[in-house]
Write a structure and sequence with these properties.
Layout (H helix, E strand, L loop, with lengths): L1 E6 L4 E7 L6 E8 L70 E6 L13 E7 L4 E6 L5 E7 L2 E6 L5 E6 L4 E4 L5 E5 L5 E7 L7 E2 H6 L5 H8 L3 H11 L4
Amino acid sequence: MLVSMYKPSEGTLNFAVLSSQSHIPIPTKLIPHYQDDASHCFPLSLLLSTCSNASVQDFCVADLKAQDGPAGYPCKTATTVTADDFAFSGLVEPGNITNIINAAVTPAFVGQFPGVNGLGLSAARLDLGPAGVIPLHTHPGANELLIVKQGHITAGFISSANTVYIKTLKKGELMVFPQGLLHFQITAGKKNAVAFVVFSSANPGLQILDFALFASNFSTPLVTQTTFLDPALVKKLKGVLGGSG
């Protein structure tokens, strides 16, 4: 029989086996330092459970037919979950870079990959042509880890103290971008570049600074006042990016 003998004065938990014949304790394991505090689990329960408050639910595959909320999507019923919910092939093919930024971002957020719902992570693929650029943008809900797969990428971010951190990365190298900070990626060189990014949220959010200013209905006078840009330049950029006002 396995029994436990907890000694608060020593801060140790001694597990022993009682022989059915002699009833003499035979020490088998010594686990150091458990404080004698009611807020901790009872020693023997350590064999069966944990003090963690983590949910016992293994996963919560998003029910994309339901409404998304601050806590994410509600779960699909377990009987409708399949292996396909936990796999995603949408990042295999390159994105279409025939556009004004000569780049493409292909997301694997919860809206595309329901298996990440509630798991605190998601991903995306970046494709950049020569002179390609992912303009200054933020992810309000997540940190970002960039992994270069092909080519060279110059990437950087601006801290809240207005310090700029820039690095040119080659294949296999990584860079991290803290949550909420403005950051960018551009092609370094004359060849295409490819990278994958991992986010610390199933739905990291995205706001591109140029699009927020010049592809929206933010009025030209207000943009001029808040950015100190010339009104003619603001109108030109709005014309390029399709903004109004």
